[in-house]
Design a protein that fits this description.
This protein is of the alpha+beta class and about 140 residues long. It has one helix and four strands, in the order αββββ. The radius of gyration is 30 Å and the shape is rod-shaped.
Length: about 140
């Protein structure tokens, strides 16, 4: 005795239902994969930007400590070699200040300068920002 009367294959309705179910499973998995890939690329770019900016930032801070707020053109902005990453340095003269003059007479008064570096991609979207306060050479 046979359980099924028609053993010739799938009907068109069964085939369409299988394709729809398969599509409902595959489409979200594809979206998850592309999103994960995009996040990975952004993380790689952010890490590369932090590495490159960190080394340039050390150079800028050293110059500010020696020479104060004035930066030569090569230390103001540029593009990191072999990348599409741009950087720009801002020394914030408005927020830089001298420490209160409550030190003993004859003691040097250090000047603090806020230095900020912004790294952007080719579309000028910000990737990372580094900021610090630098004590310049001591003023008398």
């Amino acid at each position: 005795m046979h359980l099924w009367k028609n053993e010739r294959g799938l009907t068109l309705t069964e085939l369409l239902a299988a394709v729809v179910l398969l599509g409902l499973i595959v489409v979200p998995l594809t979206n998850i994969g592309t999103t994960a890939l995009r996040w990975h690329r952004e993380d790689v770019q952010r890490n590369q930007a932090l590495d490159l900016a960190g080394s340039k930032f050390v150079e800028v801070k050293a110059h500010v400590m020696r020479a104060g707020r004035t930066l030569p053109e090569p230390l103001v902005q540029g593009t990191f070699p072999d990348t599409e990453l741009n950087w720009q340095v801002v020394t914030d003269g408005e927020h830089s200040r001298q420490l209160p003059v409550q030190v003993l007479e004859g003691q040097p008064i250090p000047e603090l300068i806020r230095v900020e570096m912004v790294v952007t991609d080719a579309r000028l979207q910000e990737i990372t920002r580094l900021e610090t306060v630098v004590r310049t050479r001591e003023l008398r």
